[in-house]
Specification:
Strand content: 5-15%
Strand order of the largest sheet: 1-11-3-5-2-4
Structural class: alpha+beta
Shape: globular
Length: about 575
């Protein structure tokens, strides 16, 4: 007797080689239903996915839907891949878009970031041995950098990249790259045996590089006969359930026999501090801060291995108060009017970890310490220092913050003085650069950006009540109509605008909607409001002439001065 499944299979499940999936995405054989959300992963998530792939860990099942002759859903290509141009895909991806887009962009060198493997982190050259995955320092072994779209970014990337950094997008050309790398090694050390060195790195290639082409991702494929109602139900279920088991759940089980119920701790913390709920704080972040205070590390391996129940009992409450206190400070003094504008959630960890010591200071010393902590926040945001290797960066910053931020003595974290700040970065950055984008919105609020209607400074309450959000200053549709040479999605083209004002703006030229606003609000009030948003409004200014490039240059000059004020730094032109 056979089971119902064996006699009447519903799903087709089979592993698909990664290189084959990439080829099919590029050709348009695999595409996305148009109702799928846009690609939202940041580079750190892609790094984690690459780590799992090269370590040959499971990365979850993909769900495809075979397409017949009838087009049920409008489809679109993956972000970074060629447009479909009318071609009908053979399969649509219902679950796995973020993972496949991340892998496609990493392996084809498209998208906003480029990914690299530092090959000497995978080997022990002295013993001619390939390291096992648990021996590899992946914070150093896998890095990402913004695509070098400007000379300034290219120069910044060149300062970071070394000969040992292999571009993930060149995975099929590793052997050619290896020849050049060994030649480079011999230049600095003529005694190196090229044959043995190449043999070592070819073994490393077989263990860690080949999976980027040959890894088999499990794919469940719905047949084309699957009813549309069933497809919708499956898709909704996939986006509503299935939270993976994480470190917090693992440690909750570990500590329960020792009288520490992390779940109860977390429920009580959320009940006591509504901020934790509003900002969707992950309880794992609390564990990282506890581990930082107890063991000077926020690394996942240390959280899982070194953290003990006694550490939780000693540091949990101070850390919870610290996270809530830091968020309150950022809201009051750094323009954080809504959770969505927090540039880096990871920044809360080192700041919260030093908070207990700061709050024990005398009032005058405490005020100075808060100023130093805010300076660290702004410098970390505008140097984008947490875009990569954030776990390692947290530990490095905490080791210096606990002296410098608290007492004002000792060496400050590297972002405060050592890392470069370039005006050109702000001129070309798009809203995809989340930290810079969020930092600019917060910065506008600290400069008392005014509500267009009331002329009052923005507060969390007014932002919520008036439905204030980031909107285009030069409307996207207008710039497309004018065939503008620069992107409408530059962060300098955004400001915090209420819903009613945005309806007035719609797709109009600035000169048109500004006249309407001037007639409604009065010219003096309008000029004051625009100035508070770092927008120059004079008869010959860019916004008054519908000159997008001039407007961007003018606003850059104002924003640079604002950044210099909060960071205490002078921005370089390049």
């Amino acid at each position: 007797m056979t089971s119902a499944y064996e006699s009447d299979p519903i799903f087709e499940a089979t592993p698909k080689q990664l290189s084959n999936l990439i080829t099919r995405i590029r050709s348009g054989e695999i595409a996305l239903p148009d109702f799928q959300r846009d690609f939202v992963w940041d580079s750190s998530k892609t790094e984690e996915l690459i780590r799992s792939i090269i370590s040959k860990f499971p990365v979850g099942t993909l769900l495809f839907w075979k397409q017949g002759t009838e087009e049920v859903f409008a489809s679109r290509s993956f972000q970074g891949s060629p447009p479909l141009a009318g071609k009908k895909p053979m399969e649509l991806v219902l679950d796995g878009q973020q993972r496949l887009t991340a892998l496609y962009q990493a392996l084809t060198g498209t998208g906003d970031d480029r990914f690299y493997l530092k090959v000497d982190e995978f080997v022990d050259a002295g013993s001619d041995r390939i390291l096992d995955f648990h021996e590899v320092n992946f914070d150093k072994a896998i890095i990402s950098l913004p695509a070098a779209t400007t000379s300034a970014q290219q120069a910044k990337n060149s300062e970071i990249l070394k000969a040992a950094h292999f571009p993930v997008a060149e995975v099929s050309k590793f052997d050619d790259w290896l020849d050049d790398y060994v030649d480079d090694l011999r230049t600095s050390d003529p005694g190196i045996d090229p044959k043995l060195t190449k043999s070592l790195y070819r073994r490393m290639r077989d263990k860690y590089i080949i999976p980027l082409r040959a890894y088999g991702l499990p794919v469940v494929t719905l047949p084309e006969s699957t009813p549309i109602e069933a497809v919708c139900t499956i898709f909704e279920t996939l986006n509503r359930t299935g939270k993976p088991l994480g470190p917090f759940e693992l440690l909750t089980a570990r500590y329960y026999p020792q009288g520490v119920n992390l779940r109860d701790y977390w429920v009580e913390a959320q009940s006591s501090y509504k901020t934790l709920v509003d900002f969707n704080i992950d309880p794992y972040s609390v564990l990282q801060a506890v581990c930082l205070r107890a063991h000077n590390s926020a690394q996942r391996s240390d959280v899982l291995k070194k953290l003990v129940a006694g550490d939780i009992k000693e540091h949990w409450n101070p850390v919870i108060k610290g996270i809530a206190g830091v968020i309150d400070m950022l809201q009051a003094d750094c323009g954080l009017v809504a959770p969505k504008w927090l540039p880096y959630g990871m920044l809360l960890i080192p700041m919260a970890s030093v908070w207990p010591e700061i709050t024990e200071l005398d009032p005058l010393d405490r005020a100075s310490a808060f100023e130093r902590l805010q300076k660290f926040f702004w410098c970390s945001v505008f140097t984008t220092n947490y875009d990569q290797g954030a776990n390692s960066q947290v530990g490095a910053d905490y080791s210096l913050l606990k002296t410098w931020a608290v007492s004002g003595t000792g060496e400050p974290p590297e972002a405060v003085e050592a890392l470069p700040l370039n005006a050109a970065t702000f001129r070309t950055a798009s809203v995809r650069r989340k930290a810079l984008y969020s930092g600019l919105m917060c910065l506008l609020v600290t400069s008392r950006a005014e509500d267009f209607h009331t002329g009052q400074a923005m507060t969390p309450h007014r932002v919520s009540e008036s439905q204030i959000d980031s909107h285009h200053i030069f409307p996207k549709a207008y710039l497309k109509r004018e065939d503008a040479s620069e992107s409408s999605e530059l962060l300098l083209n955004r400001s915090l605008i209420d819903a009613e004002t945005n309806r007035i703006i719609r797709d109009k030229a600035p000169t048109v909607y500004l006249k309407e606003m001037s007639d409604t609000y009065g010219s003096d009030k309008l000029k004051s409001v625009l100035a508070s948003h770092a927008i120059k409004f004079e008869p010959d200014s860019g916004i008054a002439e519908d000159d997008y490039a001039q407007f961007l240059d003018e606003r850059l000059g104002i924003v640079v001065k604002m950044v210099e004020r909060v960071t205490g730094r002078t921005l370089a032109d390049e």
